[in-house]
Design a protein that fits this description.
It is elongated and about 70 Å long. The protein has two helices and no strands. The protein has a domain of 35 residues. With 54 residues, it is mainly alpha-helical. It is 61% helix and 0% strand.
Length: 54
């Protein structure tokens, strides 16, 4: 087992959850919109599959 007491791990987990839950929805939506714009602006990759010749 670890040397750290379980209560310390639990407190760390609770602190992490508190930070995640307190992020405003507007901020999450803004980040998501920025990521979608980056995906749209990225150059399209061409297929690397070899097409069979007739």
């Amino acid at each position: 087992m670890t040397d750290k007491p379980i209560s310390s791990d639990w407190n760390n987990f609770k602190e992490f959850v508190r930070k995640v839950v307190t992020v405003p929805k507007e901020e999450i939506d803004k980040i998501k919109a920025e990521e979608e714009e980056e995906l749209k602006a990225a150059p399209k990759k061409h297929s690397t599959k070899v097409k069979p010749k007739p």
